[in-house]
Design goal:
The complex is a heterodimer. Chain A contains 20 helices and 29 strands. By secondary structure, chain A is α+β, with helices and mostly antiparallel strands. Chain A folds into 3 domains: 202 residues, Aldehyde oxidase/xanthine dehydrogenase, molybdopterin binding domain (Aldehyde Oxidoreductase, domain 4, 2-Layer Sandwich); 148 residues, Aldehyde oxidase/xanthine dehydrogenase, molybdopterin binding domain (Aldehyde Oxidoreductase, domain 4); 321 residues, Aldehyde oxidase/xanthine dehydrogenase, molybdopterin binding domain (Aldehyde Oxidoreductase, domain 4, 2-Layer Sandwich). In chain A, strands 11-12-9-19-16-17-18 form a 7-stranded mixed β-sheet, with helices on both faces. In chain A, strands 14-22-21-20-15-29 form a 6-stranded mixed β-sheet. In chain A, helix 15 runs parallel beside helix 19. The longest helix of chain A is centred in the N-terminal third of the chain and has 28 residues. Chain A is globular. Chain B has a 5-stranded mixed β-sheet with strand order 2-1-5-3-4, sandwiched between helices. The longest helix of chain B has 14 residues. Chain B starts with a strand and ends with a helix. Classes of the chains: A alpha+beta, B alpha+beta. At the A-B interface, helix 7, helix 9 and helix 18 of A face helix 1, helix 2, helix 3, helix 4 and helix 5 of B. The complex binds FE2/S2 (inorganic) cluster (2 copies). One FE2/S2 (inorganic) cluster sits at the interface of chains B and A.
Chain lengths: 720, 151
């Protein structure tokens, strides 16, 4: 038996380089890294943990605790540390933190230590204060060392962009030079917030700077897990159950094993694992497998088109689900209302469609494992591997890579454990690659749902009662965004009812906010039309006690010149949504080809208040991306099930938005704020369904109530 | 079966089974992993490379089809990211996850090579071939237009 991998501080800071078909590791050279908590030195003698690594040549390496899946937080998080330590940004390098959640994780309340799960747009908001503290501590260590070396009072020292300065004696030393004599202080104090940098002195936070990951993303050198090569590596694929829960039986095993290049066939619970010496061989084997799928899993009965009828029945039944909010006396107020307005909305399942299909590289040895993966759940994945192999956590080494998109799908561990199973069976490293077809057909989708809305209007024309029942397939995913915290309606009842269809559902960018804000924001528009009110003014009235929200809405309206002249043949829609603490509002301008049923979104104006924004130009990019991805889901995307099978298989029948259908113009404004940072990555997405539907209603007088708004559906609605 | 071709300006010879495909050969046999797999069926364009200067989808190209021809991948597009499109891509901070951008840049480079001054419509219809899930299309357009202006 080999001994477990030693988790010493050097090996942890090695990183992987690819080249020549072998894996080679470079140990980081240089001087120590600084402790995060004083007691770690005691509990773990000799081991120094850290956020910052300083080289004698002045290079500062900052450890990135979150998955980089495109959202740019690896740059933003490092900038927070660099800001407080007053580092020269051009000398900063960023490296993924080791998978050690007790150091690099955060709790749900933002406390240090917890999970390294990268979800819910919480990387910057969750780490903000801790990283400022860590940066301030790093700066303290530098000052402390210079004070000792120069025998001056630490209070006489200041810093300026990568240098410590003693103005009394007119001396200046670079951080790199300090590395030559640095020692760790006995005690690493918590730096009181009053001694953190004054925001008016910020050089990075809130300023323009470039993302550190972009250069390697324009020349093909960025390493995703699918790019990993290790010596002796072979290729694996899995043929998975087309109906969730059915069991495979391979009918032509000997024929498959005899194919050129085949190295192994492995029976898994949910599929047949295939391993060969090349991608071509293993894909050929997959095409040739004859598998009968057995059992009678629940999903077999799922026909998604018909499921809406079940939802309807459930919505009308007396059954009661999970109450999201209940206030006032809804029943009473509804019956007293002057007028009742009702509408139902629907949304199909949608698929993550991250551009990099799932994959992982695993090398399982007798009593340990080394794995390369792009994952949103670094610590969860490491633990899942250890549990799966029944080996200690320390025996699992997980190298995190760039993610070619995550959007929630890569917070699952299924694809990593498959790689582990195949490698274990083969006794050698395996690169497990999902095809696009696998990725779609074994997807885990944003829930489909039916949203039943009902509002009571009183004699003064005010919305006095609000009832929203969400019925869908997706359990806890269904409720997010169903509440309306920025609209003051005295009597409300918001409830979620779930029907389990035995299929896989999962968080998808903005989770339930996409469907729920579509329903809420479209319904408000319908109320405005019924009441002959401007939908912008109707919202203003509802949120009048919420100045931040009001400002966001006003900003979007102003940017779009709401109420102003709109080009012939076009119309506009407005909407608002909060997500992960960020308040966002948008206006879009559309036109319609009535013959083809195709909607064209020409322009989108978006405004957000996300508290302190660390990296504004990236935040704008995130909102642009969320608007475009949101638009794609609103116009194009639908996963349907027939007898439990996903009917879509690739981008021909699951079409994503392409460049020509992207808006011609997107304008974003960020509202300046000194409030704590909020989550940005998802904020542009939730209102997209409503702003398009609302613009469409303004253009045609007809209402789109079922996402996606495909040309067929549009034509149907026009003809209705 | 041995196939010889010019890859990024250098002659290479690859011996592989007759069903070898260009994408997997570039990525796994030659270890030029900048070219990505996205769909395997010519729908997404993440695998775009140049064959004799024209953009092709490597995922549906048999290795035998490049015998004696010139193939250019993102790794061979320039030294040190110096192609005007790469410079504009950095200036405009285009990529998010980055997975599609080898394909985006190769697709755009082929366009500008054939037509240094395309119209917005020509850019759109040409760039339609490459998907971006992260929604970077607005910045892709800006970067291409900037490149055209600067050259
Ligand atoms: S991988 Fe070749 S077009 Fe998608
Ligand atoms: S940047 Fe992620 S797919 Fe284009």
């Amino acid at each position: 038996m080999e001994t477990p991998i030693k988790e010493n501080k050097i090996s942890r800071r090695k990183f992987l380089k690819r080249g020549g078909g072998i894996t080679f590791l470079i140990a980081a050279a240089g001087v120590p890294v600084w402790g995060l908590r004083n007691h770690e030195k005691e509990t773990n003698p000799g081991q120094i943990t850290a956020w910052v690594h300083l080289d004698e040549n002045g290079t500062i390496t900052i450890y990135n605790p979150a998955a980089e899946m495109g959202q740019g937080t690896m740059t933003a998080l490092a900038a927070i540390v660099a800001e407080e330590m007053d580092a020269d940004w051009s000398m900063v390098k960023i490296m993924d933190a080791p998978v050690e959640p007790e150091i690099y994780g955060i709790g749900w309340g933002g406390e240090r230590g917890g999970s390294m799960l990268t979800v819910g747009s919480r990387s910057v908001s969750g780490h903000y204060r801790n990283l400022r503290q860590s940066g301030a501590q790093a700066r303290y260590v530098l000052l402390h060392n210079v004070a000792r070396e120069w025998k001056v009072d630490i209070k006489e020292l200041t810093t300026q962009e990568g240098h410590v300065i003693h103005s009394k004696s007119n001396r200046k030393i670079s951080y790199g030079e300090i590395a030559g004599f640095i020692q760790l202080p006995e005690e690493l104090p918590e730096i009181p917030e009053s001694e953190w940098k004054d925001p008016k002195d910020f050089r990075l936070i809130g300023k323009e700077f470039q993302r550190k990951d972009i250069p390697e993303k324009v020349d093909g050198s960025a390493v995703f897990s699918t790019d990993i090569m290790v010596q002796d590596m072979v290729y694996g694929v899995v043929s998975r159950s087309p109906v969730n829960g059915s069991k495979p039986e391979l009918k032509n095993e000997s024929e498959i094993k005899a194919l050129d290049g085949m190295l192994g066939v492995l029976m898994l619970d949910h599929g047949i694992g295939l391993v060969a010496d090349s991608m071509e061989s293993v894909l050929k084997a997959k095409r040739n497998c004859q598998i009968s799928w057995n059992g009678n899993p629940k999903a077999l009965g799922h026909n998604s088109r018909e499921a809406y009828e079940d939802y309807n029945k459930m919505a009308e039944s007396d059954s009661s689900g999970n109450i999201i909010t209940s206030s006032g006396n809804l029943r009473n107020e509804l019956s007293l209302s002057d007028k009742i307005i009702k509408a139902d909305y629907k949304n199909d399942y949608v698929y993550h469609a991250q551009m990099e299909p799932l994959n992982a590289v695993a090398h399982v040895k007798a009593d340990r494992a080394e794995v390369w993966a792009g994952t949103q759940a670094a610590d969860g994945t490491r633990k899942a591997i250890a549990d799966h192999l029944k080996i200690p956590l320390e025996s699992v080494k997980l190298h995190t890579c760039f993610l070619g998109g995550g959007f929630g799908r890569r917070s699952m561990t299924d694809y990593v454990l498959e790689a582990v199973d195949l490698s274990k069976a083969m006794g050698r490293p395996v690169k497990l690659q999902w095809t696009r077809e696998d990725d779609i057909q074994f997807g885990a989708f944003r829930p489909m749902s039916l949203q039943c809305m009902e509002a009571g209007i009183d004699q003064k024309g005010k919305i006095n009662a609000w009832r929203h029942v969400v019925v869908g397939t997706g359990g806890g995913l269904l409720g997010s965004g169903a509440d309306i915290p920025f609209y003051d309606i005295p009597n409300k009842h918001i409830e979620v009812r779930n029907i389990d269809h035995g299929i896989r559902t999962k968080h998808w960018r903005a989770v339930g906010h996409g469907p729920n804000k579509f329903a809420i924001e479209t319904f408000l528009d319908e109320i405005a039309v019924a009441q002959k009110l401007d939908p912008y003014q109707l919202r203003r009235e509802l949120m009048k006690n919420h100045p931040r929200a009001l400002k966001v809405l006003d900003t979007a309206a102003k940017m779009a010149d709401w109420g102003g002249k709109v080009p012939e043949g076009r119309a506009r829609g407005i909407g608002f949504a909060e997500r992960s603490g960020t308040l966002a509002a948008g206006v879009c301008e559309i036109s319609l080809n009535r013959n083809t049923g195709k909607i064209k979104v020409h322009k989108i104006w978006g405004a957000m208040d996300a508290g302190v924004v660390v990296h504004p130009q990236n935040a704008k990019g995130q909102m642009e991306g969320a608007l475009v991805m949101g638009l794609s889901s609103v116009l194009n995307e639908s996963i349907t099930f027939k007898d439990g099978r996903v009917e879509q298989s690739n981008f021909n029948n699951y079409p994503l938005l392409r460049m020509e259908d992207s808006p011609e113009e997107i304008a974003i404004e960020i509202i300046p704020s000194t409030e704590p940072p909020a989550g940005i990555g998802e904020a542009g997405l939730p209102f997209m369904g409503a702003v398009v539907s609302n613009a469409f209603a303004s253009l045609t007088g007809k209402r789109l109530r079922h996402m996606p708004f495909t040309p067929e559906k549009v034509k149907e609605v026009l003809a209705s | 079966m041995t196939t010889s071709f010019i890859l990024n300006g250098k002659k290479v010879e690859v011996t592989a089974a007759s069903d070898a495909n260009l994408l997997w050969t570039l990525r796994e046999r030659l270890q030029l992993t900048g070219t990505k797999y996205g769909c395997g069926a010519s729908f997404c364009g993440t695998c775009t490379v140049h064959l004799e200067g024209k953009p092709i989808k490597a995922c549906v190209t048999p290795l035998s089809a490049v015998e004696g021809k010139e193939v250019l991948t993102i790794e061979g597009l320039s030294e040190n990211r110096s192609h005007p499109l790469q410079i504009a891509w950095i200036e405009e901070q285009v990529p998010q996850c980055g997975y599609c951008h080898s394909g985006q840049i190769m697709q755009a480079a082929a366009l500008l090579k054939a037509n240094p001054n395309p119209s917005r419509e020509e850019i759109l219809s040409h760039m339609n071939a490459v998907l971006c899930r992260c929604g970077t299309y607005p910045r892709i357009m800006k970067a291409i237009e900037k490149t055209i202006q600067n050259t």
